[in-house]
Amino acid sequence: MDIRFNQKKYMTQLDRSISPISHNFPTFTFPRFTEQFLANGIKVYVVEDTSQPLVSIALTVKCGSTFEPIDGLARFTARMFTRGTTTRTASQIADEIDSLGASISSSAGWDAAETSINCLAEFIDTATAVMADCFCNPVFDEVEIDRLRKQSIAQVQQLAADPNYLSATAFYGEIFSGHPYSHRRHGSLDSYNKITREDCINWYNHIQNQECFFIVAGNITNQGAMELLEKHFGSMKYSPESPAIAPRAAQTTNRVVAIDKPESLQTTLYIGYNTIEAKHRDYPALTLANSIYGGMFSSRINELLREKHGFTYGVRSLIDDRKISSTFIVVTSVGAESTAQSIRIILEELERMKLEAVTVEEFQTAKQYLLGSFVRDMETPHDVSNLLQTIELYDFPKEYYSEYFNTIVALSHEELFRVQQQYFRRDNIVISAAGILEDLKYQLAEFGEVKVVSLDGE
Fold first, then answer.
1. CA distance 301 to 165
2. Rounded-to-integer distance, Cα 330 and Cα 316, Å
3. Within 10 A of 38 (CB to CB), how many other CB atoms are there?
4. Residue 282 exposure: Cα atoms within 13 Å on the Cβ side
5. Beta-bridge mates of residue 307
6. What are the pLDDT digits (tens) for 389-419?
7. Are 420 and 357 in contact (CB under 8 A)?
8. Beta bridge partner(s), residue 332
9. How many CB atoms neighbour CB 237 within 10 A?
10. 10 Å Cβ neighbour count for 174?
11. Taking CA atoms, which of 30, 64, 282, 410 is between 20 and 30 Å from 176?
């Protein structure tokens, strides 16, 4: 018997050029957590999850790099916490943590410093003892300071060869010109050569007087978490002073900056402007509009720059949130010969977002993308911890993320267009480009006077 399969007959007739659109939205409920206080007054969040035998503890201090007196000092000082205490050397800390199969880290961002551990639940008591020792009893050994100084300088030298870092540094230096956010949080060659043991001790004493909080997540009960923290951090003196408050960042004027990256085949671009902060009522709608413009793979500018013109492997737009400022940014690397044309397209699409309502199909697709991503990014206790940290650090209401989600669900096509008209623009923009300097001067000239930025000392 001759049996032949008619492939054509049974093939699904699917037009793959059209994205499938669902009109059903996922539901979201913020995972359960508890909020309590240690006897000394430090706030503690606990997120219980017995699905895995892991526990993480993070101690966040509400003081980061914003007001550091020397570029990179906050991050440098935090990294010294795990490099020797009054009872353990740096190698003893590393060996003890390794023997537990755990990890410990300490660092600082713009608005906060964090020391944290991750380990199996059965070893959490020992790991927490090490963490408490590192945070409460660092000695800032001169030998370890010199070792970290050399490592930090080497890292800065590596960063100085990265065109993304160069363009970003130049961009933020201009977008926050005259503001505390404009300095180099990762430090420079000059700043690392200046940092002394006394500087570290002074900054450590400063952050000891700042507000802080714990987040415990994983396979541990609420009672167990509180008992654990009381045991190891209960004797810590806690009397936080009023925090320093930075001014709001001013709106920028049109600025074009170039930084030389000799022999580069590409130009790395950062283009953007300061926008509304995450607390603003229009912020959820702005994130949805951003998804359409450049926040997802099928976005307008990625379709144009990558798919249509082949200028780049990818381009994206995002909103960079800090405690007292948010910045709308487009980031990409394009072929050097396509620099000017790529910028034109980016600016033209900003203008189109302002003048024309997005299509209903774009609107529905972006809603599905944003809501689905939001739910997916809440799958682990670590994910929940990150959101709790943001809530506490930025003084958001506890219902912030639930309200954000519900705002996106209820958002109408007409309301989105109002937000597009209000917050998308192509004026008062900073354009930063890293590439071959002479070529950049020529291609960038049509967008304004080109300011050449040097990162000497990096």
1. 22
2. 6
3. 16
4. 16
5. none
6. 999 999 999 999 999 999 999 999 999 999 9
7. yes
8. 269, 315
9. 9
10. 20
11. 282
DSSP 297: T
Residue the block writes with tokens 């990096």: 458
331: tokens are 């980031």
Give the model confidence (pLDDT) of 67-118 as tens digits.
999 999 999 999 999 999 999 999 999 999 999 999 999 999 999 999 999 9
**Contact yes or no for 276/440 (Cβ under 8 A):** no
The residue type found at 308 is K
Dihedral of alpha carbons 378, 383, 385, 386, sign: negative
User: Whole-angstrom Cα distance, residue 81 to residue 131?
Assistant: 9
Neighbouring C-alpha atoms within 13 Å toward the C-beta of 62: 22
Question: Rounded to whole angstroms, how far apart are CA atoms 5 and 114?
Answer: 62
Radius of gyration of the chain (CA): 25
Q: For residue 246, how many other CB atoms are within 10 A of its CB?
A: 18
Q: Give the whole-angstrom CA distance, residue 311 versus residue 299.
A: 15
Distances (CA, A) of 274 to 91, 175, 289, 302, 426: 44, 7, 16, 22, 12
**Identity (one letter) of the amino acid at 64?**
G
| DSSP string covering 404-438 | HHHHHHH--HHHHHHHHHHH--SSS-EEEEEE-HH
Q: How far is residue 206's CA from residue 109's CA, in Å, rounded to a whole number?
A: 16
Kindly report whether the global pTM for this prediction surpasses the value 0.85. Answer: yes
Roughly what angle, to the nearest 10 degrees, separates helices 360-376 and 413-423?
90
